[in-house]
Amino acid sequence: MHQPPLPSLTAADPEIARLVEGEAHRQFGKIRLIASENYVSRAVLEATGTVLTNKYSEGYPGRRYYEGQQFVDPVEALAVDRAKALFGVEHANVQPYSGSPANLAVYLAFLNPGDTVMGMALPMGGHLTHGWAVSATGKWFRSAQYGVRKETGRVDLDEVREIALRERPKVIFCGGTAIPRTIDFPAFAAIAAEVDAVLVADIAHIAGLIAGGAHPSPVGHAQVITTTTHKTLRGPRGAMILSDAAHAKAVDKAVFPGLQGGPHNHTTAAIAVALGEASAPGFRTYAHNVVANAQALAAALAQRGFDLVSGGTDNHLVLVDLAGKAIGGKPAAQALDRAGIEANYNTVPYDPRKPFDPSGLRLGTAAITTRGLGPDQMPQVAAWIEAAVAAAGDDAALGRIAAEVAELMAGHPMPGWA
């Protein structure tokens, strides 16, 4: 059953309670390889369900527009202090509701409509909010996009510099949503300095790896850092903006009153809990294990003939190009789901297929590492992936794989289910 138990919800709304229980059981029985997902601790789950959700708190600690902040202010102050200590930054804002609003706050803080922003193109691994055309950031601002080399799947920093010198952006984003390789923050910082741009490192995917010392940090290179608080950081669905002191005021004004009203205090509390957990010595082991699992999974998939973008991974994320497998990413992801393996279809660089039916699969190892799986089990996971992709459309075969997956996962405890 769900942990913590849900007796009041079950009594008041059994239909919703049944769906929550079903989702918890689904998460328990599957190999979850969506790179943006994880499992939070029971402490984080409990924090998100407290009476803090009842309280409105527009403003910042000590400067609120509502009375009754005697306990909320210390909660937010704790989250801020823990974020600053964990990442070694001068300033932290823990109020953004999610990663996209955090990035929008950057635009409000440092750009005017029509100004030029530079980021990685979405099909190359960037994020919608880095200036892609269908996003408000691509509609309200002039966008310059960089990509990766077709031959290597890696960012060509000479090309990035060339585009920056030509387009003169006011803000440069580095980071993205499907980048399997280490981000060269010092090189991006040198380019940004050359064109007098604010460098923003979007570390939403790798924040936990940075906190755990498994990926280089952008601190000291990027003036502003945005991140979600879930994914590899293993916290609730929220976000933070970290910055140096010189950019702190602009960031805070952009978040509130620029974009948001009152923060979600229950989420802030859960962020504080997660940051405390990430400060513990064991989290460093976790972060390094995430990378070890990703690299072991990548190697096992490559041995089975899968084409990996950039040839492998340096972090938690593996991007698979299925063009040589005669199946698209979407039917492959659907087959995997039926086989008890949760992934998402994804575009790959220079993808000839449409975004809603792309050539790729994006896999991540943060969640299975939380469950205790290790590199020795990645060859079996790769074997199941190969078998499921080959068995697309064969429900009986996919069901047999799902039963084997469930048997494996039954031996690995899950926070939130018992």
TrEMBL record:
InterPro entries: PyrdxlP-dep_Trfase, PyrdxlP-dep_Trfase_major, PyrdxlP-dep_Trfase_small, Ser_HO-MeTrfase, Ser_HO-MeTrfase-like, Ser_HO-MeTrfase_PLP_BS, SHMT-like_dom
Key word Transmembrane helix present: no
PANTHER family the UniProt entry points to: SERINE HYDROXYMETHYLTRANSFERASE
UniProt EC number: 2.1.2.1
Pfam families for this protein: SHMT
Keyword set includes Glycoprotein: no
GO molecular function: glycine hydroxymethyltransferase activity; methyltransferase activity; protein homodimerization activity; pyridoxal phosphate binding
Name recorded for this polypeptide: Serine hydroxymethyltransferase
Membrane-traversing stretches: none
Protein species of origin: Saccharothrix espanaensis (strain ATCC 51144 / DSM 44229 / JCM 9112 / NBRC 15066 / NRRL 15764)
Cofactor(s) the protein requires to work: pyridoxal 5'-phosphate
Catalyses which reaction(s): (6R)-5,10-methylene-5,6,7,8-tetrahydrofolate + glycine + H2O = (6S)-5,6,7,8-tetrahydrofolate + L-serine
Predominant location category: cytoplasm
Complex and partners: Homodimer.
GO cellular component, one term: cytosol
